[in-house]
Amino acid sequence: MYAIIATGGKQYKVSEGDIIRVEKLDAEDGSTVTFDRVLAVSDKGLKVGSDVAKATVTGTVMEQGRARKVIVYKYKRKTGYHKKNGHRQAYTQVKIDKINAK
Question: Residue 39: enclosing H or E segment and its boundaries?
């Protein structure tokens, strides 16, 4: 059984027991989060649309962290312009506990 959820502007295919990294959520370590935007659920056939309107996916927050640094380097030739910048994206690591396909 798997579900496709949407959070943080991205879509994730998840099963029970999976560990995923999503965009930062406002939750503490060890707390439970519920994903309400379920796009599809597969259990003896694929259900989409109004069939999964009340479906939810629950998970436990394992960790809040920041990803590895990404270097952003801007350069324009012949003008002497160059700019170096770094960015670390914040994430939340979630373990999927249960898929509630109503």
Answer: strand 38-42
